[in-house]
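Model: Ready when you are.
Researcher: Fold this.
Model:
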Amino acid sequence: MPQRPIQQRWPDRLWIVRHGESAGNVARDAAQAAGLFRIDITERDVDVPLSRLGERQSDALGRWFAAMPPDERPDVVLTSPYRRARLTAERIHAGGGLPVDPADFVVDERLREKEFGVLDRLTRSGIEQEFPDQAEFRRILGKFYHRPPGGESWCDVILRLRSALDTISLHHGGRRVLIVGHQVVVLCLRYLLENLTEPDILAIDAEADVANCSVTEYRFDPDSGPRGGLALHRYNFVAPLEEAGAPVTAQPDANVAAR
């Protein structure tokens, strides 16, 4: 009896993009520069918009995708529900980079920003001042395992991203998938897709922040494992922004102290 062909599990290509610079990034820098304990943001984190620069960065990335042949551009778009991520995806579409209508974007809450609980909106000095016990717990446990009250550890983020990757492999095998999310999401997806260890991913994180609107890209490799797998093609790629003259920014999100 002839064997049935093995169905490709993974997308042909997977792009993971961090959102453009947000108003929260700008407010965080201002608070740090002024030595403040709290970051001055009026919106909920989920509602923080892009800054003007973040809009330019997103537009530049849209033109980069638009320069690809039509049959190489993303044909599936998944985005965090946070406003800055959704706006980034919408502006990439407006730049001609996506054949997918924004109405067909998959808004997936599993791609949301890491939750910071009681440490939300505090700078590093603010955490040390208001929650010295949490600052000490984080020092002892490290960012990978420390879970602030009401918030998440990196492991918690990884748990929900495992589920998101299962959905992608189930429904989008052989497709070209774009994910628009957040810094910790980019790093934790690398951890999962490349089977990294805690020291591996923390070393990558320590090298540099994930730049706003940077591209991390994987391509399907049929020789990776019995059913093929995704191989890293580029990480933290910012050439589309540089070519368009949009300044590259890599500030952590407003809750950097707890990241």
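Researcher: Now this one.
Model:
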Amino acid sequence: MHRRRLVVALLALLLLAGCNALSAPSSGTETLTPAAVPEGVPTAAPGVPAAEGVTALDADRLLAADERRREATSYRLMRAVEIRGRNWTTRIDRDRRVAADGTIYERVETEGSPGLTPAVARSELWKDGSTVFVRTYDQDGTRIERGPFPSVPGHFRRWVLLREQLVTGGEYRVERTAEGVVLRTAEPPPVGEAVIPISLGEPRNVTAQLAVEESGLIRSLRLRYDTTFQGETVRVEITHRLTAVGNTTVDRPDWVD
């Protein structure tokens, strides 16, 4: 029972502090492909040096290019946070769909190992312009909240901060691939409080990886680190993956009516 209370507390802090994520099968066909690389001519994504090697990124250029590319298209963003202890695992999955007209639907699901059931099982958000609806359920299916919100709750927004923290901090080894540029940790980036809940200790053994298209679009990222929770060593892994770029739609859920 004591273990159950610890994990419930950890999950609540994760949802509020914004340690974000998601993982679900992609639907639809990818329509965005990397630009062709002229033979013999080194190219790289905006903000990433053309020559391969270890480098600090031009964060402003890369983040601006990524934002411009996402604003110009629709996409599906899958995010996942997994925290593994000695005898337990807690996972938060997020599936955000952004249509070309800017409407958003996001679903959050949480899961714990047997006997370590999280307090919140599912949360959903639908946003059209300034109109925001949210509903949340516990593990028993009881609705905790439902209805309009004045703005998007914080735990639905914090994924952008993780992307910025990884790009602006640390140094990366630049590797060119057929899909674009892969950035692997050379000097670990700092991991700020927006990523780590206050109940967790300082991160150790931090590694990060980002995949960037020649257009500057950040297609995926992965952050791993060790830390402590209530004196126990835990392993945290956070992944983001952009999919169905240019081929994502958002249908108005029935529960919004």
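Researcher: Key takeaway?
Model: Residues 32 and 194 are 31 Å apart (CA to CA).
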